[in-house]
Design goal:
The protein has helices at residues 12-23, 37-44, 63-72, 90-98, 110-121, 129-139, 156-166, 171-178, 182-196, 201-210; strands spanning 3-8, 28-34, 51-55, 79-84, 102-105. The chain has 220 residues and is α/β, with parallel strands linked by helices. Strands 2-1-3-4-5 form a 5-stranded parallel β-sheet, with helices on both faces. Helix 7 (156-166) crosses helix 9 (182-196). It is globular. The protein starts with a strand and ends in a 10-residue tail after the last helix.
Amino acid sequence: MTIRVFLVDDQELVRTGCAMVIDAQADMAVAGEAADGSAALSRLSAETADVLLVDVRMPRMDGVEFTERLHRRDGPVPKVIILTTFDLDEYAFAALRAGASGFLLKDGPAEEMLQAIRTVHRGDAVIAPSTTRRLISHVAPGLPKPGGDVLTALTCREREVLLLVARGASNAEIGAELFLSEGTVKTHVGRILHKLGLRDRIHAVVWAYENGVLRPGQDR
């Protein structure tokens, strides 16, 4: 299956560079381009895409508003990967809350971008543990303590898995720490997302911090 990638960035040079790398892949193709979120929404009404690479800061309609509007539309919603220039970017955090499946730094390696596209297309989320934790710690220093037990619906094992997901651990890393197979971890993650009404792993990370399950800078 060819992954159809749509590029949304106000910098033509960035779009051109990304397009060259993507079109060189056997399993990917550029489905279209737009210079801002408003134009992208119009184009996507007539064109189909699987994954969107979206700049978080653009004129007319930025990546946050675009992501919010995209998720309010009827029908299947393409996966959104937010592109940001700054490692600590409150706009990127807002986009994750709006429904983006991850974020990437623009100056990262091309292979990282390609791997991220494949990852979100499979239905996973792109979580860079260090940058995700720094981002949340930077933009949400006053996160609330949980009101009551927000984890009532989860089993003890599911709580352990959620804490590790919130720290940015992969299924393999969670399995190694809890002595579980990757398949079992994946099953636990799926049940956690279903019980808590969460979209994906990124949403689980944001949810855990916002509900005080894990505090910025907390290791355990």
